[in-house]
Write a structure and sequence with these properties.
The complex is a heterodimer. Chain A is 26% helix and 35% strand. Chain A is α/β, with parallel strands linked by helices. In chain A, the strands form 2 sheets. A 10-stranded mixed beta sheet of chain A has the order 2-1-5-8-10-12-14-16-18-20, covered by helices on one side. In chain A, strands 3, 4, 6, 7, 9, 11, 13, 15, 17 and 19 form a 10-stranded mixed beta sheet that branches. In chain A, a hairpin with a 2-residue loop joins strand 1 and strand 2. In chain A, helix 9 (390-398) packs across helix 10. The radius of gyration of chain A is 22 Å and the shape is globular. Chain A starts with 5 loop residues before the first helix and ends in a 9-residue tail after the last helix. Chain B has one domain (24-434). Helix content of chain B is 21%, strand content 35%. Chain B has helices spanning 40-49, 54-70, 112-120, 150-155, 163-169, 171-177, 188-196, 437-444, 450-461, 463-466, 471-485, and strands at 2-3, 6-10, 31-33, 94-96, 134-140, 143-147, 159-162, 201-205, 214-220, 231-236, 241-249, 257-259, 262-267, 272-279, 292-302, 308-315, 320-323, 326-329, 335-344, 349-352, 355-358, 364-374, 378-387, 395-405, 410-419, 425-434. Chain B has a 10-stranded mixed beta sheet. Chain B has a 6-stranded parallel beta barrel with strand order 15-17-20-23-21-18. In chain B, strands 1-2 form a two-stranded antiparallel ribbon. Classes of the chains: A alpha/beta, B alpha/beta. The A-B interface holds A 52, 54, 342-343, 345, 355, 357-360, 362-387 and B 76-77, 389, 402, 404-434. Strand 20 of chain A pairs antiparallel with strand 26 of chain B, so a sheet runs across the interface.
Chain lengths: 450, 490
Amino acid sequence: MSKIAASEIAFIEHFDSFNSMMTSTQPNWLNQKRADAFTNYRTNGLPTGRRGNESWKYTDVRDISNTAFANSSEDLITSITEKDLLDSSHLNKNWSTLVFINGVYSSSLSTQNPNDGIQITNIKDALGSHGQIIERHLGKYIAPDDDPFVLLNTAFINDGAFIYIPKGIASQDPIHVIYFSTSETDPTISHPRTLIVTEEFSETTLIESYVGTPKAKYFTNNVTEIVIGEESRVDHYRLLLDNPDSFHIGTTVVHQEKASTFSSTSLQKGAALGRHNLTSTLAAPQSTCNLNGLYMTTGSQHIDNYINIEHIEPHTTSRLYYKGILDGSSRAIFGGTVTVQRGAMKTDAQQKDKNLLLSREAEVDSKPALFIYADDVICGHGATAGHMDDNSVFYMQSRGIDLLTARRMLIKAFASEIIEEVKIDSLREYLEDLFVSFEDELTLLQASSI
Amino acid sequence: MTNPNNPNVISRQSKIDDQEYKWGFTIDVDSDVAPKGLNEDIVRLISEKKSEPPWMLEWRLRAFRLWEKMRDEEPEWANVEYPSIDYQDIIYYASPLTKDNDRPKSLDEVDPEMLQAFEKLGIPLNEREALAGVAVDAVMDSSSVTTTFKEKLEELGIIFCSFSEAIQNHPELIKKYLGTVVPYSDNFFATLNSAVFSDGSFAYIPPGVRCPMELMTYFRINEADSGQFERTLIIADKGSYVSYLEGCTAPIRKKSQLHAAVVELVALDDAEIKYSTLQNWYPGDKDGQGGVYNFVTKRGKAQGINSKISWTQVETGSAITWKYPSVILQGDNSSGEFYSVALVNNHQQADTGTKMTHIGKNTRSTIIAKGISAGKAENTYRGLVKIMPSAEGAKNFTQCDSLLIGDQCGAHTVPYIEVKNPTAQIEHEATTSKVSDDQLFYCMQRGVSAEESNYMIINGFCRDIFKELPFEFAVEAGNLLRVSLEGTVG
């Protein structure tokens, strides 16, 4: 290597100081895990190579590796108020809400209404009370464990949300985790880690929001691990609403036990460069996952969804449905892979990716792949890309609806298939409002576009 | 058994006589064989044997020097596994010897052993008995043996001959088009081919001519330890039409043999090329011993407006197939088609598909790919549909279906879709399943045996592709399918 990327130098400096700080406070097993992760990370560094780099084929992370991120100061973190949160995200006072500013837990902004033995807290505190559960699950389901961003996150584990649902408990209200990022002059970085463990016969709804102060320059590199016990259900909503100057690389790993159900809705509107790696492992019979997603990009945004569904045992079902609306010179990438392992008979897997291209410069790259090693299966995928259908617009115009309204209705109809599936009323209304503000930005819906 | 004249009529008899790869015999002809290994001298030797002009040798050497630099870059991204190839352990030139060491002037001069061999393969080299309407160029190892119906085609101005002859007789056409679709620097195997290609077919259809018969090349590997590196170039001038067929077989050898061919098609304004392949190289035995490595670069350029290129392939042979017949849709309103059946059994591996690159306005492409996996085989469809910013109003429809027979095989679908123009319309669909129990039950309760029922259902699954093939080929394809499926139902 002739030239070491700016980020690399910063990471090495950070790790040394961070590590010496943590060794005394964190348990030995975690110190070891972090040290190993950093060593592994150092072997390859960030995935900036272009040749043969299949999993990062369409996403160039050199903008990230060329930035020297700084640690955020104490003052910066405490300067965030409830108003900042309200401006950027959905807040519901009745829900348990965990707020993290640049990855650091803010007890003053968080509300905890735990009941029935449900644990809703931050990992740092939970290491004392629930150390064994964390040790048993943390980092256990990430395979293959060679993603540089995951390794980096593990090396810098400091805090994040920890949620534990005991056997037979259904949490009434959703649990909301807000990762808020901000910066002063230097761009900041945070590595939040989320761990959710649910025992048998339980039910829970989780919302993860990624937000930040407008104009701030930051990089959020998060990892979320969800372990779903037998006959349990987790509804997961992930809102990527970071500001359009930020970087976001997120990894969600889901491990499903027998007859469990995982439903996820991923809504992506923010970040200059956003990537979500979602892996769902159907590790036991009768488990099901439903993954929905909507990405809405404008300007020069770049959003990449990299999804893996692993069918390991027989009688498992998966549904994947992602939709994209692209405007400006933005670019969206969809990479969805369904793998059916040998012996996973009676697998039923369907995946779909539909894209609506609204501008000349927008680009979409879609790669829906199937890898199937068992014969008694029903698997399929479909992908489409196209612009707004002129016939539909004409049909509406011929019935007296003006052009802009017709376009607006068609774009909304395209998105509503995903938004309408949101079960929480207040969240759905929030997302509908958010969608209206997105539509307002679209060039095709400006009066000047006629 | 299938009625050989009509693959769709099936009698209720399920016993199959031929259990083995019946094209696996070797032919005893004397050959002129170059020493094993690859170096600059071998490239010079091949060129010299073919008495090529200096510019051709220059081109080969350029490719060879580039290949030497690429040596460590043998592609690994395909979903196939094989022991690394020792490129110094291959014979790069083997040519059947004729009496006076010259290419036979007429059929009478062709070694009768060889005539018999092609007869045995079912390839009519004898013009009198030939099926009406097929002109054949037969290629064994590194040399073209004979080309039939040459004179009849010449009357229309159609040039159909071996590649070596074309270099001698039509250098201006070769110079103009060689490497314009697949440049010598294209990829590892194309570069290797450019350095050592031995023979192949050349066809030129003049403006406004509709070729009255199918043109066919039959490729045969015969020599042990030899690789086959042929090169085909077809040019359809303005407003012309040609249908071209390609068939291939190889003897049973314990050791794997390398086949790295390059095919280039050029269609000018309003021209149409229909290219059909029946690939039946030796697939290796039941334990995966031997078999041909088929690493082929095939690409067509729909250069003119309203031009059309259509690829139809039935892939049943080869131990490993690595092939993506592609179309560059450059002319406005041009269209590209890809119809494929890829069947793998035992330990075969196939990574095949297509690339459609839309450049011109209103370009259209259709991809229908059917994959069948049985035994311990792995079958991958890999395709790219790329819409460039200039391809206003481009359309693509892709359908990939996979069928799995048995629980030890794999079927994979990896499509890439890249859209840089919003007016494009792209649709992609894929399904994977096994032969449905309901369909099997329906057939069997009417007294059709399990094996026959399976064959019927699979034949139906492939119908969309078979109907694109010229008639004789469709019959052959049905039979091939039957032989390749043998033993897949317990």
